[in-house]
Write a structure and sequence with these properties.
about 25% strand, about 350 residues, globular, about 20% helix
Length: about 350
C-alpha cells in the first residue's frame, strides 16, 4: 500500500487474495452455475417520445440511465480479470475490452458517473470510460474512491467525495443537482462476501501515489446507495430510481421515509449477490422503497470475459433470491443480460 492507505482488515492483501482463491475454488462447482430465465434485447413498455425512462445494463454495477437530454452512468466493469489472477496477481483495466463494449454507446452527455464503493469491480474501468466516453461527467463516490482515483488516473479533478451529503431512513440528505437530475447519496454498508468476511475492506485516507496493482489495493471505503430523480420541466419528479451496487443489511441503504411517503420509487435496482449473508434483503427494501418495478444488477459472474455465456456470480443462489422477492413484491422484475435496454413510461 502507498500514499497513506489504511486498511481495516487484519489480513494482508496477499493472504486475503489466497483466501479468495481457495474459497472460490472450493465453491466454484456449485457457486458458478447457469441460471434463468433472464431477459435480453429490449423491454419497451413506453410509447414513442422523450418522456420515458431508458435504462441500459452494462454488466456488474454498470447502467446507463437516460431521460430526454439528461443521462447518467453507474460505474461499469468490462475488464473482468479471472479469479485466480484477481486473487494472486496484478490486475488492470483492459482498455481494448472497454472500447469494444463502450464504443456502442453515446454517453458524451452523461452528467455523472456514480460508484457506491471503491472495489476494483466498481472503479477500475472508470478512468478510461470517463476520459474516452463520458468526457463531461463528474465522478461521484465515497472518500476512498476520490483518494484512489488520484493524479495517476487523469480524472482526479473530476472526482467528488459526497459522503457528507448522505441521508438514511430517518434523515433526508442533500440533493446534488446536475441539469435536470438530482442525486442523494444514502448511508450503506457492504455485506460480507462469505462466512461474515468482507474482502478488501478498509479506507484510503490520502491520495494514492500510483495506480493500485492488486485487487486488495482497491479498498471499499464507506459504501453508498443512491436515490436518483429525473425532473421534468416543472421541476417535479418524472422518475425516481433507487440504486445499490452492493448487498447491504437493512436499515443501512434505506431511503428516507419522509421522501418515499410523498413519492415512492419507480425503479429499484437491487443486487442479489451474497444476499444470504444478511437478513431481510430484499424484503425490507421492498417495504422501504415501495417500488413499482425491480431490476437486478451485479448478479452475473464477472470472473469470465464479458462475451462469455452469462453465469451467476459465485456464492449466490440467484433463484432463491428471486423467489424471496416474489413473496413480497407483485410488480415486474427483470434480471438483464448485458446490453439489455428498458424503456418505462412515466
Amino acid at each position: 500500500m502507498t500514499g497513506g492507505t489504511k486498511t481495516t482488515a487484519p489480513r494482508s492483501g496477499a493472504v486475503a487474495g489466497a483466501l479468495l482463491c481457495l474459497c472460490l475454488t472450493a465453491l466454484g462447482a456449485v457457486g458458478c452455475t447457469r441460471v434463468g430465465p433472464s431477459v435480453d434485447g429490449t423491454v419497451d413498455l413506453a410509447p414513442p417520445g422523450d418522456d420515458a425512462l431508458e435504462l441500459t445494463y452494462l454488466g456488474t454495477g454498470g447502467w446507463i440511465m437516460s431521460h430526454g437530454d439528461d443521462q447518467i452512468l453507474t460505474a461499469p466493469l468490462f475488464s473482468n480479470p479471472g479469479f485466480f489472477q484477481t486473487g494472486l496477481w496484478t490486475i488492470s483495466a483492459d482498455t481494448s475490452e472497454i472500447d469494444r463494449w463502450m464504443s456502442g454507446y453515446d454517453v458524451r452527455n452523461a452528467r455523472v458517473i456514480l460508484s457506491g464503493h471503491a472495489h476494483y469491480d466498481h472503479l477500475m474501468d472508470v478512468p478510461h470510460v470517463a476520459k474516452r466516453y463520458a468526457t463531461n461527467a463528474r465522478i461521484l463516490g465515497n472518500r476512498t474512491a476520490a483518494n484512489t482515483l488520484s493524479a495517476w488516473s487523469g480524472v482526479e479533478d473530476r472526482v467528488e467525495s459526497i459522503e457528507e451529503y448522505v441521508g438514511d431512513q430517518e434523515t433526508v440528505g442533500t440533493w446534488l443537482r446536475y441539469g435536470d437530475v438530482r442525486i442523494m447519496p444514502l448511508r450503506s454498508r457492504h455485506a460480507p462476501h462469505f462466512d461474515g468476511y468482507t474482502l478488501y475492506q478498509g479506507s484510503v485516507d490520502h491520495p494514492l501515489e500510483r495506480e493500485p496493482r492488486y485487487a486488495s489495493e482497491w479498498l471499499d471505503g464507506n459504501t453508498l446507495a443512491y436515490l436518483i430523480d429525473f425532473l421534468d420541466a416543472a421541476d417535479s419528479v418524472a422518475f425516481r430510481i433507487y440504486y445499490q451496487d452492493a448487498v447491504v443489511a437493512p436499515p443501512y441503504g434505506f431511503a428516507p421515509d419522509a421522501l418515499i411517503e410523498v413519492r415512492p420509487v419507480d425503479v429499484a435496482i437491487f443486487v442479489p449477490a451474497t444476499f444470504d449473508q444478511v437478513d431481510w434483503h430484499p424484503e425490507a427494501f421492498v417495504a422501504n422503497l415501495q417500488p413499482k418495478r425491480v431490476l437486478l444488477g451485479h448478479w452475473e459472474d464477472f470472473f469470465v470475459p464479458v462475451h462469455a455465456e452469462t453465469r451467476s456470480i459465485f456464492l449466490s443462489d440467484i433463484r432463491h433470491f428471486e423467489k424471496r422477492l416474489e413473496r413480497v413484491f407483485a410488480g415486474d422484475v427483470w434480471r438483464p443480460e448485458i446490453g439489455t435496454v428498458f424503456r418505462f413510461p412515466r
